[in-house]
Task: structure prediction
Amino acid sequence: MATPNPMDATYSASPSAVSKQMYTIAGIRTTVYGLEELPTDVKNVACLWLLHPRLQTQECMAPIAATTITEWNTRLQNNKDKGTGLIAISFDQRNHGTRKVDNLANEAWRSGNASHAQDMFSIYQPRITSGVVIIGCPDYVRVMSDRARLSKLKSWTDSSPPGSQFIGSKDFPRGLVEAVEKYDPAGLLLGKVLARTEETYTRDPTEEEEKRLIPLMTNTLHGKRILNLAGGADKLVPYKAGEPFLQWLKKAISEDGWFRDGGITLEDVVFDGVGHEMSAGMIHEVVRFIGETFDQTEAAVSGRPSKI
Result:
């Protein structure tokens, strides 16, 4: 079965368009939305990076750019202190749209792509400071293990117990394991993937583990705002795959958690009955969260030159 476009039913009617300019940056076609709508008296300019879903292209992000920019500019009109203006930027992910070089590399195991796990991990993007995650998973090992089980890969079915030899196999090779341990949230924070056997991550870290985790979380998560949106009925990227890690992180940053002073904001919203799609309710949460993020961070950037 083909992977559905999660944005097919996001809008019942197309939102009013905003201006867009195309640039070639480091050889990549890049679209900048909202430059013409920027008020002339804003003090700073914030950039919203729009990363499109797998198997889609940057063009599908245009309605989201229009919705968020229009909503933000409406707020500015009612605010005497113009503060921060908003633009949005999109580009094609690796091997998508204008950067596509191999159709098969975007497909799943069931469609004949033997390197599905490696190929999908390669579209991950670093350098996030405040972000909205829509239909994502912070634990790549869990989501791909579940997919390997459902795909009945030999690396899953031929081991005893089933799946015990999947990590490190040709379908999830050690090179990918190393990348997951470096870039994936659960892989980075929970430690060695091959040594991780817990089904849930409920225990507090030991004193020795805290010595590793506290500097790491300070460098990667301190002061960040994160909104995670998921469909409760999503079978392709099930919420249950990321839930153990999210519960671990929530516990760590709670009022009595061991990383309570990290200044992290994490909102985790699951939409009951929603499948692998970006629903209208998700759009509402995105717009709200972006506005609140700018309101809370504007004072921190006062006097700093804008950078795009």
The radius of gyration is 21 Å. The beta strands are 20-25, 28-33, 44-50, 84-91, 130-134, 225-231, 265-271. The chain has nine helices and seven strands.
